[in-house]
Amino acid sequence: MVNKNIVELFGDTPIKKGGNLPVWLCYEHLGIEFNFLNNSWNDTENPLIFICLFTADKSKRFNCNLCLNGLSEKTYSCKNNCKMVNYCSQKCYDIHYPLHSKFCI
pTM above 0.70? Predict the structure, then answer.
């Protein structure tokens, strides 16, 4: 897997670290951190090197107002338990939800 696959599966996150060091994404609300090989955020094919699991902090749910599938403003959120992934339209929801449903909490 590469970093763009992680964002496609889990959505964007406000916790992005790296730049001088290899980059990583942290989803505190899920209890998972993804670490990548290279130190560039511009490298969308940056390979995953390890995953760190920890106790999820449900109070850390973040509120990103952009659609997971693009840069449009959100209109819909996941309609199931998590309500964490945002979409700009029913069409985007229908396209992405089969993938998201595997991880929806």
Answer: no
